[in-house]
Specification:
The chain is an alpha/beta fold and about 300 residues long. Helix content is about 20%, strand content about 25%. The strands form two sheets. It has an eight-stranded mixed β-sheet with strand order 1-15-2-3-4-5-6-7, covered by helices on one side. It has a seven-stranded mixed β-sheet with strand order 8-9-10-11-12-13-14. It is globular.
């Protein structure tokens, strides 16, 4: 058996859907950029939420002003019933000081899970102490409630970066539930050993960035990610039933046009999906399938 991901547009607000505690099943909602809400087996997990204008304020008047192209799909105070908040690394669009304090205040029982290599940044930006934070490094597993677990994987945000103790700055998270495993790669490019590492975790759904990378941005300190074609190839090699493409549509200088993603979606027969707001991605068991080949 494999997993089927069914996009289901919904009427009403995302806040209304999050007003009650999740029950059974697995559902994903996109928050923009690399941000997702994952309801899995009665547990609510928020991953890399960027719901503020922190970067617009930080880079105002520069060559790359980081003005949002899309408004936040929900107010921070409306994200409720949260059990865990995951940050893959310390870049502001993944560990946002304009989002995390309010989110963790609204959900006082929620725990933050963050890379061990960026402890100082996580404490400062979240506004909570170590009693509410679980530190993790690549290869480590954290057991959550309701039988869920999270295993951290390495990521290379153009490079693999470690601190002086060998802890990784950039991580992905494989979230394993009763019926499915969802892997959020974090910001990454392909690197040696990546496929074998992820394949061992048997992800059913891969959440992969597709904004790519350009030398002129890398030279200015703006690290890139997988291209759309690389994301398709990584999802196929890792054995995922579906890839949800994200990390686009936030900043004009560092995005991929949605119509370009849609062109390729038409070539892979439903196995590649483009993250969109106002949509619930319902994950359920399905029959056997194979990842269709496509070339961008």
């Amino acid at each position: 058996m494999t997993v089927l991901v069914k996009p289901q547009p919904f009427s009403g607000s995302l806040a209304q859907r999050l007003a009650v505690k999740p029950t059974e099943g697995t559902v994903l909602y996109w928050l923009g950029q690399a941000g997702f809400i994952l309801d899995m087996d009665g547990v609510r997990i928020v991953i890399d939420p960027y719901l503020s204008d922190s970067l617009a304020a930080k880079y105002a008047g520069t060559d790359f002003p980081h003005v949002r192209m899309m408004p936040p799909p929900i107010a921070v105070s409306d994200i409720r019933q949260v059990d865990y908040v995951l940050c893959t690394h310390a870049h502001t669009d993944h560990m946002d000081p304009g989002t995390l304090p309010g989110l963790l205040a609204t959900n006082p029982c929620a725990r933050l899970i963050a890379p061990r290599a960026v402890q100082a940044a996580a404490r400062e930006r979240s506004g909570v102490g170590d009693e509410r934070i679980s530190w993790v490094d690549a290869g480590e597993r954290i057991d959550l409630s309701s039988g869920l677990s999270i295993t951290a994987t390495r990521s290379a945000h153009e490079t693999i970066k470690c601190d002086e103790d060998g802890h990784h700055h950039y991580l992905g998270f494989a979230i394993q539930g009763q019926e499915a495993t969802v892997w959020h790669s974090g910001d990454t490019v392909p690197f040696e050993g990546q496929v074998a590492e992820v394949l061992a975790l048997a992800p059913d759904v891969a959440l992969l960035p597709v904004n790519g990378r350009r030398a002129e941005l890398s030279e200015r300190g703006i690290a890139g990610n997988l291209t759309l074609q690389e994301a398709i190839e990584l999802g196929e090699a890792a054995g995922a039933s579906a890839v949800i493409a994200h990390h686009y549509g936030m900043f004009a200088f560092n995005t991929l046009p949605p119509e370009r993603i849609d062109e390729v979606i038409n070539k892979v027969q439903g196995r590649l999906l483009r993250a969109a707001v106002g949509t619930a991605y319902i994950i359920s068991l399905s029959g056997p399938q194979t990842f269709s080949e496509a070339r961008c």
